[in-house]
Write a structure and sequence with these properties.
alpha+beta; about 35% helix; 4 helices; two-stranded antiparallel sheet
Length: about 180
């Protein structure tokens, strides 16, 4: 009789492993996805800082801060080599004036549009904002537990504001003459 009861347990370990493995691998891949999301969060925070730093020292509307913010070299306009789907289209640079209504009291901030005649000397701050859609690698696995899962997370808006510095201006520059470029 002992041998007969031994054969009734055949395959029990496989069934137990199947139940445990689903939860184990979901937890394991969940840790990987959380680590990727945290890494992306840190890179996007650094990207806004880099973009704001370059925008503070480059002339208004220069494409260089956008390229530097996505970790490309100064004149390369390809996608980011560090984060997939991060392009210059995800980045917004605004030039701000601390005294919007001209009453001499700072606090009311307005956007300075230098493209339509606003003066670069009116710019007090530069603000870089990134909006990004984070794509999950293992979205199919999480779809087992959350049926309506799309596999993407909308990241919070990342923003850095810095005081404007030279904005590419040369202190010895007297017009007329060539404009100063942002070649760092």
């Amino acid at each position: 009789m002992k041998q007969k009861s031994r054969f009734h347990q055949r395959g029990a370990e496989t069934v137990e492993f199947a139940f445990v493995a689903v939860f184990y691998f979901t937890l394991l891949f969940g840790v990987f996805e959380f680590a990727r999301a945290l890494y992306t969060w840190n890179v996007l925070t650094e990207a806004t800082r880099r973009g704001a730093r370059m925008a503070a020292v480059c002339p208004p509307h220069s494409p260089i801060p956008l390229n530097v913010a996505i970790f490309n070299s100064l004149n390369v306009t390809a996608n980011s080599p560090i984060i997939s789907n991060l392009t210059t289209a995800n980045i917004t640079i605004r030039y701000l004036n601390a005294d919007a209504n001209g009453d001499g009291v700072d606090g009311d901030v307005a956007v300075v549009d230098t493209a339509t005649g606003g003066l670069a000397s009116n710019i007090d701050f530069v603000e870089v904002t990134i909006n990004y859609q984070h794509q999950m690698l293992f979205s199919g696995l999480f779809g087992l537990f959350v049926p309506d899962w799309t596999g993407s997370l909308t990241s919070p808006t990342f923003q850095t504001t810095l005081p404007a510095e030279s904005l590419g201006a040369n202190p010895e520059f007297t017009p007329p003459g060539p404009s100063t470029l942002c070649n760092f």
